Amino acid sequence: MGLKIVSIKSSFPYKSENLNSEKYKKIIKATGINKRYVSSEKENVISLSIKSAKKVLNSKLKNRISFLLFVSQTSPYKFPSISCILQNELKLPKDIYAVDINMGCSGYIYALKLARSLENLNNNRKYGLIICSDTYTKYIEKNNNSCEPIFSDASTATLLKISKKNQFQAFDFGVDGSGYRSLILTENSKNMFMDGAKVAIFTIKEIPQFIKKFLFKNKLSAKNVKYIALHQASKYVCDKIKEKLKFKNSYFLENYKKYGNTVSSTIPLLLKDCIDKKKLKKNNIIIACGFGVGLSWGIVKIKW
Question: Is the pLDDT at 22 greater than 90, yes or no?
Answer without folding.
Answer: no
